[in-house]
Amino acid sequence: MVRILCIVAAFILVSPGPVPASELPMSGQAYVTLVQGRVNYTQEHRKVRLKQGYKISAPGKLVLGEEARLELELADGSLLRFSGGTECDLVSAVTNGAKRDVRVDVALGDCWASVKKFLGQNGTFAVNSPTAVAGVAGTRYRVHVDATRASSYLVYEGRIKVGYRPVSSKYVTNKSFSGIKEVGGPQEVQGPSEISMQDWIMIVKSGYRFDVSPDGAFYRPVRFDRQKDLQDPWVRWNLNRDEETGFISSNE
Questions:
Q1: Strand blocks (E) in 14-98
Q2: Is 28 left (phi over 0), alpha (psi -120 to 50) or beta?
Q3: Are 125 and 99 in contact (CB under 8 A)?
Q4: Of 46, 41, 94, whose CA–CA distance to 64 is shortest?
């Protein structure tokens, strides 16, 4: 009897959280369809190194090694991918015919979302940065959060709605915070002003990027150079994965 109890206790210790699975995930879960390098998932203080074929349930925390990559498939066929060095929380993964509540909080790194269109009445699919929240219906976009907490959203298909995430926010519309530009002689300009949460909403269309500073200042969406963007190995890999998996958003 003592020996049996020891075996059971040992099994529990080495089998926290996720378990191997061959079927698609149920609502509230995500299926690990691809993993490269070291990816740890922590849930209720239990940490496991993910392997392809595992199922994970939300909520939980993902931490990827510097050279790692991860792809998750949700029950509705939507895909989430994460690059090396990413730290994020999988807050919710509910996907069924009547309701969708998928939320990812990215603290650092990169997340790519290939999202299936949702026809239900109750639908949320949001990949959030420290200073912004972005919801979609059916689209492809990516989010990058750097070490300063500045974030960028780039949309490849469809559109996203980006809104304020409570921080001390300033509204700036006339230039980017990503660099310093020489200008002409002195001129009076309108300084940043406090804005309310309901005023802090942007629709970002396909082919545009939207940048948010660490303190919540944001700038009008601007077109990005798709050809230049394709030089990024992370972008090429995601587009190739979408093609390999036969992903179709049904956004049209």
A1: 19-20, 29-36, 39-43, 46-49, 54-57, 60-64, 69-74, 79-82, 87-95
A2: left
A3: no
A4: 41
Domains and their CATH numbers in the chain? 76-172+196-245 (2.60.120.1440)
Residue bearing tokens 């290939």: 114
Q: How far apart are CA 81 and CA 174, in angstroms?
A: 33
Q: Which residues lie below 8 Å from residue 83, measured CB to CB, with a gap of 6+?
A: 64, 68, 69, 109, 110, 234
111 three-class SS: strand
Outline where 93-170 has alpha helix (H): none
CA distance linking residue 93 with residue 57, whole number of Å: 8
Tell me: the pLDDT tens digits for 97-123?
Answer: 788 899 999 999 999 999 988 776 678
- The answer to whether the CB of 108 falls within 8 A of the CB of 85 is yes
**Among the listed residues 148, 100, 141, 150, the one whose alpha carbon sits nearest the alpha carbon of residue 242:** 141
Tokens of 145: 């959060």
> Which carries the bigger pLDDT value, residue 145 or residue 220?
145
- 91 against 98, higher pLDDT: 91
Question: Within 13 Å, how many C-alpha atoms sit on residue 137's CB side?
Answer: 14
Mean pLDDT of the residues in the chain: 78
The tokens describing 224, both together, are 């990005």
The β-bridge partners of 223 are: 208
The pTM of this model reads 0.79
